[in-house]
Q: What sequence folds into this?
C-alpha cells in the first residue's frame, strides 16, 4: 500500500519539548480513560426513570422508591466488583478532562498561539471546551440522585427563562412537564453517543491541524518563525507520550481510590419537592450557580410574557457572552494588528501586558462567581451572614477584575523593565562587592546567550496609525487605531545593537515572505 513515504514523513514530525505543551495531552489521555471506564459502566447502568423499591446491598435505602437509573448506579457502587472504583475514576477523569482543556486554552491565550494561522484551530478548541462542559453535565445528571436532580431542575429553570420560546424548549427537552420520564434516557444518548462522537471528530480535526500547521515553540537559539525544533514523533516523543498516558491513568486511579467523590447514597433519590443542603454543581459549571445567586431579583412583563431577567441574564446571556468573546478574540486582535504574518513563536506573557491583564481579569471574574456559588457553605463555616457575603461578592465581581487588570499590567511592565536591566547590567552572581566610595554592589555577569536570545526575540506589533494622516478630511479607522494604541502602546524598549535588531527581525520574519525572497 502507498503508505510508506507519508508515514515516514509523519513519524518524523518535530514536537517541541516543553512542559506547557503537555496540557493538551493530559486532556486527551483523560478522555481515553473516560472512554474505557465509560464502556465498563454502560454494561450495568440502566437509563430508566421507572420507580421501584430499592432492594440492594445498601441497607439505609432499602424499601425506598427510586428510579431504575438511581438503583443501577447504587448497584454499580455496592454490588458490581470494582464498580465504585470505576465510577470514581470516571468522575475524577471528567473533572480533570475539563480542567486540562481549560488550562490548555489559557496557555494558548497567554502565549498568543491562537494567532494566524491558528484562528480556526482556536475556535475548534473552544468548541471542544463547550462540548466537554455539556458532556460533563449530561454524565453528572444520569444517576438521578437528589444533588444531580437539583442541578437538572436549575437547568430547566434557565431554559424556561428564555423569552417567548422558553416554555416550548422545556417541553421539547423534557417531553412534557418536568421532570417527565424521558430526560434521563435522552441525556444518556447524548452522553454516550452524540457528544462523544462530536468530541472525537473535532479532536481528529484539531490534531490534524496541529500537525499540518506545525506546533508553536518558545524562542531559543536555533528556533525561528520558520522552523520547528523538537523530538521526532517516533520513537522519542511517542515513548514520552505513552509514559504520560500511564501517569495520568495512574493518578486518576489513585484519586479515585483515596478521595471520595459524588457519594449518591448520601444524597438519596431525586424528588422534585426536595433540595439538598449545600447543593453545588461540579466546579466547571459553578460559575453559573454563583451568577444566579448574585443576580438581584428582576422581572418584567412584556406583551403578555414574563421575562425573568434574574435567571436569563446569568443563566443564558452570561455563557453566551463568555463563549462569544472566546470565539471572537483572535479576530479582535487581528483587527487591531492589521494585516499580519504567520506566528509560530510563543509570546512571553509579560511582552503582551494588555492581553495578559485581560486574561487575568477574566479568570478573576470566574473565580469570584465560583466562590459565590458556595456562599451558603462559606457563611456556615465562617459564621458570616449570607447577606453580607452576597453584597461582598457583588462588589468584588466589579472591583476584583479591574484591580487584577491594573496589577497584572503593571507587573508585566515591571518584568519587562527587569529584563532591560539584566540585558544592560547582566545577571547577578550572588557576590557582594564594596565600591571605592564605601558602598556595596552585587557583582554582575553577562547573560548567557540563550537567555539573552529569549528576552530579545519578541514580536510586539506597533500601534496602528493608518488612515489618520493630517491631510485626510475624514480620518478613517480612528476607533481601531485608538484601541490599537491602548492594546499595544505600553512596552519597555530593550537595549539592542543594530546587528541584534536585524537578527531579531530575521528570526521573527514571515515564513511566506522569506520563502518568496529565497525563491526569487
A:
Amino acid at each position: 500500500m502507498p503508505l510508506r513515504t507519508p508515514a515516514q514523513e509523519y513519524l518524523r514530525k518535530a514536537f517541541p519539548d516543553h512542559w506547557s505543551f503537555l496540557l493538551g495531552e493530559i486532556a486527551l489521555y483523560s478522555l481515553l480513560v473516560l472512554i474505557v471506564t465509560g464502556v465498563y459502566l454502560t454494561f450495568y447502568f440502566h437509563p430508566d426513570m421507572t420507580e421501584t423499591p430499592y432492594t440492594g446491598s445498601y441497607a439505609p435505602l432499602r424499601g425506598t422508591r427510586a428510579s431504575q437509573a438511581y438503583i443501577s448506579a447504587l448497584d454499580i457502587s455496592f454490588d458490581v466488583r470494582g464498580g465504585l472504583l470505576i465510577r470514581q475514576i470516571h468522575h475524577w477523569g471528567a473533572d480533570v478532562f475539563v480542567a486540562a482543556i481549560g488550562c490548555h486554552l489559557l496557555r494558548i491565550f497567554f502565549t498568543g498561539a491562537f494567532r494566524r494561522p491558528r484562528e480556526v484551530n482556536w475556535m475548534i478548541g473552544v468548541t471542544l471546551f463547550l462540548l466537554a462542559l455539556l458532556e460533563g453535565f449530561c454524565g453528572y445528571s444520569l444517576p438521578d440522585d437528589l444533588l444531580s436532580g437539583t442541578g437538572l431542575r436549575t437547568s430547566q429553570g434557565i431554559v424556561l427563562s428564555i423569552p417567548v420560546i422558553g416554555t416550548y424548549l422545556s417541553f421539547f427537552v423534557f417531553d412534557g412537564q418536568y421532570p417527565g420520564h424521558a430526560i434521563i434516557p435522552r441525556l444518556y444518548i447524548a452522553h454516550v453517543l452524540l457528544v462523544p462522537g462530536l468530541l472525537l471528530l473535532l479532536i481528529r480535526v484539531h490534531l490534524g491541524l496541529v500537525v499540518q500547521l506545525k506546533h508553536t515553540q518558545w524562542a531559543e537559539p536555533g528556533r525561528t518563525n520558520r522552523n520547528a525544533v523538537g523530538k521526532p514523533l517516533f520513537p522519542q516523543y511517542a515513548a514520552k507520550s505513552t509514559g504520560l498516558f500511564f501517569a495520568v491513568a495512574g493518578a486518576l486511579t489513585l484519586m479515585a481510590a483515596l478521595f471520595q467523590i459524588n457519594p449518591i447514597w448520601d444524597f438519596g433519590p431525586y424528588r422534585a419537592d426536595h433540595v439538598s443542603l449545600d447543593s453545588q454543581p461540579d466546579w466547571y459549571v459553578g460559575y453559573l450557580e454563583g451568577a444566579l445567586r448574585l443576580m438581584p431579583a428582576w422581572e418584567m412583563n412584556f406583551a403578555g410574557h414574563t421575562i425573568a431577567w434574574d435567571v436569563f441574564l446569568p443563566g443564558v446571556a452570561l455563557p453566551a457572552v463568555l463563549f462569544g468573546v472566546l470565539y471572537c478574540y483572535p479576530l479582535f486582535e487581528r483587527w487591531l494588528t492589521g494585516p499580519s504574518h504567520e506566528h509560530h513563536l510563543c509570546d512571553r506573557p509579560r511582552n503582551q501586558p494588555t492581553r495578559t491583564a485581560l486574561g487575568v481579569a477574566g479568570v478573576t471574574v470566574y473565580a469570584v462567581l465560583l466562590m459565590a456559588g458556595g456562599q451558603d457553605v462559606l457563611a456556615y463555616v465562617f459564621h458570616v451572614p449570607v447577606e453580607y457575603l452576597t453584597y461582598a461578592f457583588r462588589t468584588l465581581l466589579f472591583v476584583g477584575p479591574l484591580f487584577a487588570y491594573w496589577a497584572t499590567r503593571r507587573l508585566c511592565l515591571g518584568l519587562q523593565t527587569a529584563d532591560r536591566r539584566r540585558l544592560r547590567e547582566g545577571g547577578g552572581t550572588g557576590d557582594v562587592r564594596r565600591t571605592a566610595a564605601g558602598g556595596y554592589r552585587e557583582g554582575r555577569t553577562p547573560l548567557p546567550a540563550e537567555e539573552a536570545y529569549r528576552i530579545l526575540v519578541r514580536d510586539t506589533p506597533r500601534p496602528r496609525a493608518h488612515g489618520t494622516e493630517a491631510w485626510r478630511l475624514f480620518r478613517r479607522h480612528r476607533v481601531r487605531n485608538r484601541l490599537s494604541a491602548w492594546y499595544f502602546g505600553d512596552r519597555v524598549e530593550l537595549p539592542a545593537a543594530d546587528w541584534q535588531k536585524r537578527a531579531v527581525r530575521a528570526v521573527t520574519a514571515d515564513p511566506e515572505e522569506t520563502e518568496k525572497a529565497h525563491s526569487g
Notes: The radius of gyration is 27 Å.
